[in-house]
Fold this sequence. Notes:
- The chain is mainly α.
- It has four domains: about 1-85; about 90-170, no CATH class; about 180-250, no CATH class; about 255-330, no CATH class.
- Helix content is about 55%, strand content about 5%.
- It has a two-stranded antiparallel ribbon with strand order 1-2.
- A hairpin with a 5-residue loop joins strand 1 and strand 2.
- Helix 2 crosses helix 3 and helix 13 runs parallel beside helix 15 (about 300-310).
- The protein is elongated and about 100 Å long.
- It starts with 12 loop residues before the first helix and ends in a 5-residue tail after the last helix.
Amino acid sequence: MPDKNGNLVKKDAAVIKKSFANLSKSAQVALTEYIIGVQNRQPTDASRKALFNNLVDGAVAAYKQGAKETPWDVLQKLTRTAPKMGGPSIAYTNYDRLTSDALLSSIAKQLGFQGALTEADLADFNTKIQSAAKAGAKATQTIRKPDGTEEVVTTPAVFDANQFAQNFLWAKVNIGDTKTLPTSVLNQVDTLRVLAKNNGIDYLSNKELANYALQIAKGDIGVEDLQRQFNAKAAELYPLFSERLKANPRLTVYDLAEPYIKKMAERWEIDPSQISLSNPDLDKFLRPDGTAGKTPMGSIAAFDQYLVNHPNAEATTWANEQARQMATAFARMSGYGV
Length: 338
C-alpha cells in the first residue's frame, strides 16, 4: 500500500480495513457521496464500511501491479467512470449529517457551485432537509371496503431530495458576484450574452443576464422561452426584419443580416465575427430610419458600392492592386514603357 507520501510500503490489507473506524469526517462524506450518487443506495455504516473494504482491495490489486494508488485514488477512478446520473432517485425520511453533507456536496459539484459552505450552512441544510423529508414521507392509511374488508393504502413519497438540495444552493447565489456564480450559470450567461448581442439587444447589464441565466439553470424558464422574448424585442428594434423574425423565431437579426455582414467582411478583408450589429456602417443600411421602419433597407448592391468607396477599403489588397494597375496603365499611356 502507498504511505501518505506515495511510497509503496507493505501493510496488511486487514489492518488498513480496520482503520475505517478512525476515518475523518471528510473521508466518510466521500464514501457516502459515492453510495448515494453512484450506487443510489441509502448509506449506512455497514454500506460505507463495505465500500471502503472494496477500495482497499482495489488499492492492493493496483499495488501488486506496481501502481501507487490509495483507496481514495480508486474511489476517484470509480466515480469518473461511473454512469452519469441526474442525482439520487431514492428519497429518505431521515438524513443524518453524513448523508445530508454528502448529498449537498454531490449537488454542488453537479451545479458547479463555487461558494464556500460553512459548518453553519451544512447544519442548517441538515435541519431543513430532515423536516422537509418527513413532511413529504410516504403516508399509510387503512380503508374499509364496501364488502367490509380492510386494505392498507400507501401514498408514494413526494419529497425530491435532489431538487431540495438544488433549491438550497440556488438561494445562496449572489448574481452580483460572478465569483460565487455556479459554472452552470456562468455558461448560460455567455450563451445569453451572444444571443442578446445577435438580436441587437445591447442594453442588458451583466446582472440582468446573470439573473436570466440563473432562472434557466434552475429550470424556471427555458432557453427557447427567452429566445422568443429576444426575438419579439428584436422585431421592434429592427422593424424591416419584423415579419421574417416572426416567421423564423429561432433566427436572430444577425442571421438575417448575414449577407450584409459577409459582404462587409469580404470588401474590407476583416473577420466577420468581429462585425457586430452595432457597427454604424452596417446599421445605417439595416435600419435607415432607426426603429421607425418606414425607409426601405438598402440593397446588397448599394451596400457593396458604399463599402468600395469607404475609407476602410483603402488598405485592402484588392484596392492596392487596383491602384497599382491604374498607375501602371497611366505610366504606359504617358510613354514610360512600364
